[in-house]
Amino acid sequence: MQFAARLVMDGLIERSLMERILQSQSELIEQGRPMTVAQMCVAKKWITKSEARLLMRPEQPFPTLVPGYEIHSLLGVGGMSWVFGALPTGESEEVAMKILKPHLARNQVALRRFRKEARLLIALHHPNIVKGFDLIEHDGLVAFTMEKVPGRMILEYIDEGGPFQEDAALYVIVQIAKALSHLYENGVVHRDIKPGNILLTPDNTVKLCDLGLAADRNDTVDGEFTVGTVEYISPEQAMGEDDVDVRSDIYALGVTLYHMVVGEIPFQGSDDKETMAQRFVDSLSSVGLSRVSPHVHYFIQKMMAADRAVRYQSPKDLIEDIEESIRGKKTLTLNPLAAEKQSLELQRPFEETDKRKKAPTLKRGRTASGRRRRR
Question: What is the set of domains in the chain, with CATH numbers?
Fold first, then answer.
């Protein structure tokens, strides 16, 4: 019954048809010829055998679901896909396998986006972007493999530990800006930058993931009015404009910086429409911003300027501004000549030797509202 309900809820089988299937199943049982709902749907070619095996137990997948891989465990669930840990045949290192949910594999927009994400991750080579390996299509299943990155999302750290220290937040922002610069050089706009799409590993490597909404510079929004997560999208994304470029990613990265150092997002409405509308009627000001340094305040204001002509025009401009600011601050306490010889790369503000928590140096506390943030 759970499997039958899943097929109906996902839209793979109409409710009236499922009722007839269940009736037929009862009749077969009475005749001494029992068949499961999965067997009946596969026999009618409404779903494939592999789709049935996946949908029957996605939390504990069949190890041999995809040829050439041994699937071990469920790593995460998203709105469009499941992510599993999998071991390629003959290999010793696990990969992450992202499998598109079967009902979305029948949706041409979702399927196109999923394939595009796979091909982008496979084509891109950057230390701050999760690396893709193979696109797999087998018996109705559509999947791709990518590097299995240890660590947690930045959003988890904010939810559990409150705001980041400014140096730690800027370190993360610079690494993601470098990832955006690589995307920009390859003509790609991410369109969904947010703390939930940024991974921080135990050795303090920052990785940008989930390119499911990424597009070429000149792509439209697949016929939809807006694309992205409403709390982070730029005003031009909120308006559904077609000429969204890297400056929209910079805006979203500014919201991410705000979220990291303040502990809450700048615009929060009662629903998506109100949240998007606040970008046009509210100025970027809050009690939270009064607690950050002038440098960070400036970065946020410039990254989140409503007029994109006022924002940083490229990730490189943002990186240079932050690194120059950090170097300037260091010259106040270090020998200027020695400081000039140092790399402008931000020094890692984390304790890498902390084997117990393996987490960034967070400023423990509550959000500006005095309450723990919940997802």
Answer: 69-147 (3.30.200.20), 152-341 (1.10.510.10)
